[in-house]
Amino acid sequence: MKIYSLASTVLILALTLAVSGCVSMTGKPKPPPELDDASRAQLNLATGLLMQNEPTRALEELLKVKGNNPQNPDVENLLGLAYYGMKEYPLAVESYMAALKLAPERTDVRNNLGLSYLAQRSYDLALAEFNACLTDLVYQKKQLPLSNSGLTYLEMGEYDKALAALTRATEVAPEYSKSYQLIGRVHMARNECAQALDYLNNAARLNPDDAETFMITGDAYVCVANKEEAAAAYSRVTTLVPNTNMAMEAQKRARDVMGF
Q1: Which of 110, 139, 192, 250 is in the most buried spot, having the most CB atoms within 10 Å?
Q2: C-alpha to C-alpha distance for 75 and 44, rounded to whole angstroms
Q3: pLDDT by residue for the chain (260 residues), tens digit each?
Q4: Cα-Cα-Cα-Cα dihedral sign, residues 5, 209, 153, 142
């Protein structure tokens, strides 16, 4: 069974939009070069646009900021996010590498770099970056590179390794819903649909606004021949993200499962 997936999955997992106050691998804050008021306003605007899934508009603002601030790792990190959102993954990699050259202690940027490698199916490079994140003793969001490692192994078909990484993620951050969703996806890939539902329902409980979780949950209920629950899960998708491609796909699956 094909599970609906979005490029934004990895964005949800870990792409960091913070523009200041990042902690270095030595545990000491290392602020970026100071921006003037106009540049700061443009950077904040770009951040807002990225959060609204407007990467092209964000890129326009960020290139203006970079012109006046060529040595700012925050700008380079946000440029990476914009390029990533536009699916310009090689350009995202260049921006993240530039950010790390300016601020090699930025573990959040390294995680983003790994995601860009993952988007290009450069699995070994992605895993190397996620593993490097885990060596940062003061990095407080290890569930992110662990979940990203799990996603990488899932895409590689290395299901045991995926489960190992994702189980560690749930131990590090028991309330992080995406780890449970990904464990559900691993079980779905193994056609272990009943086990998948346990984790998917937990993910939905922790984050009842994640449309993708409900889409996969619908697929899992189809797999165990529970039409009513499948239709209810698909209906939840259309409520959460109306007028989107995902909603239209959910409506189609609901009709198919109910025989309409």
Answers
A1: 250
A2: 11
A3: 444 444 444 444 445 444 433 444 444 556 677 888 899 999 999 999 999 989 999 999 999 999 998 999 999 999 999 999 999 999 999 999 999 999 999 999 999 999 999 999 999 999 999 999 999 999 999 999 999 999 999 999 999 999 999 999 999 999 999 999 999 999 999 999 999 999 999 999 999 999 999 999 999 999 999 999 999 999 999 999 999 999 999 999 999 998 87
A4: positive
Return the bridge partners of 29, or none.
Answer: 23
Q: Are residues 95 and 147 in the same domain?
A: no
Q: Are residues 77 and 147 in the same domain?
A: no
Instruction: Specify the CATH number for the domain of residue 245.
Output: 1.25.40.10
Kindly state whether residues 152 and 134 are assigned to the same domain.
no
Q: Which of 111, 140, 169 is the last residue of a domain?
A: 140
Domain identity same for 106 and 182: no
Q: For residue 255, which amino acid is it?
A: R
Distances (CA, A) of 260 to 10, 215, 231, 251: 34, 19, 11, 11
Structure tokens at 171: 């131990």
Dihedrals phi, psi of 206, to nearest 5 degrees: -75, -30
Distance CA(259)–CA(113), nearest Å, equals 44
